[in-house]
Design goal:
Elements (H helix, E strand, L loop, with lengths): L3 E4 L5 H9 L4 E6 L9 H11 L4 E6 L4 H11 L3 E4 L5 H11 L3 E7 L8 H5 L4 E6 L29 E3 L8 H8 L3 E4 L4 E3 L2 E2 L1 H13 L7
Helix pairs in contact: 1-2, 1-7, 2-3
Bound molecules: the ligand O=C(O)c1ccccc1N[C@@H]1O[C@H](COP(=O)(O)O)[C@@H](O)[C@H]1O.
Protein name: N-(5'-phosphoribosyl)anthranilate isomerase
Keywords: Amino-acid biosynthesis, Aromatic amino acid biosynthesis, Isomerase, Tryptophan biosynthesis
Organism: Bradyrhizobium algeriense
Length: 219
């Protein structure tokens, strides 16, 4: 089964090219000023042009208002909006309707109790991303390299495509896919030499490791 591989937090032409050439299905761009991966609109326009037609462009935002989303949509021309904040079900529905774009809602996971919100979000989102819940006081809700207990997703019965993220790396991605049966994986910190600094060799290594799991999976 093909596995969707998303490399997130790309911010330079060089590392974007590496991800595209290595076969990333999705490339993610972060629009959240406290993040070390935050992109200006000017850079987003340039990287958006570079990625166009080569992989799905994903705009990651955190509780963004309509004006901010509008600027991002105008400049990046994303294929998917990743909502990584505390957006309510009504807000997710509203964003989808306003921008006519598919939406991936992020569910922060620590224990199985965190999945209680899933039916509501699954009724409005196009796909779900399960990410590790950030610790209290963290400066951002993701991109921290934190792993959650993948076994929480073991008995998941979700009629929607879903991906997994949170502390993934070339070394653990196969196990994450085996346990969760996710249709996609998403990585940021695990392909960086320092926060915000993507490493080309780590990107290639991650994509190779993720692709190697495809033969093992029957989803
Ligand atoms: O990358 C960020 O800085 C970020 C900021 C705000 C919300 C989410 C962010 N990153 C996303 O979090 C997951 C997991 O990242 P990691 O692999 O554990 O570093 C992924 O989707 C990142 O793009």
């Amino acid at each position: 089964m093909p596995l969707l591989v998303k490399i997130c937090g790309l911010s330079t032409r060089e590392t974007l090219d590496t991800a595209l050439e290595a076969g990333a299905d999705m490339v993610g761009f972060v629009f959240f000023p406290p993040s070390p991966r935050h992109l200006s609109l000017e850079t987003a326009r340039e990287l958006g042009r570079q990625a166009k037609g080569r992989a799905a462009k994903v705009a990651l935002t955190v509780d963004a208002d309509d004006a901010t989303l509008e600027n991002i949509v105008e400049t990046l021309r994303p294929d998917l909006l990743q909502l990584h904040g505390k957006e309510t079900i009504a807000r997710v529905r509203d964003i989808k309707a306003t921008f006519s774009l598919p939406v991936m809602k992020v569910i922060a996971v620590e224990t199985s109790a965190d999945l209680a919100v899933l039916p509501g979000y699954a009724s409005v989102a196009d796909r779900i991303l399960f990410d590790a819940r950030a610790p209290r006081g963290a400066t951002r809700p993701g991109g921290l390299g934190a792993v959650f207990d993948w076994h929480v997703l073991e008995k998941l019965d979700l009629q929607l495509p879903f991906m997994v993220s949170g502390g993934l790396s070339a070394g653990n991605v196969a196990e994450a896919v085996r346990v969760t049966c996710a249709g996609g994986v998403d990585v940021s910190s695990g392909v960086e030499s320092a926060p915000g600094i993507k490493d080309p060799e780590m990107i290639r290594h991650f994509i190779r490791a993720a692709r190697a799991t495809e033969e093992l999976m029957v989803r």
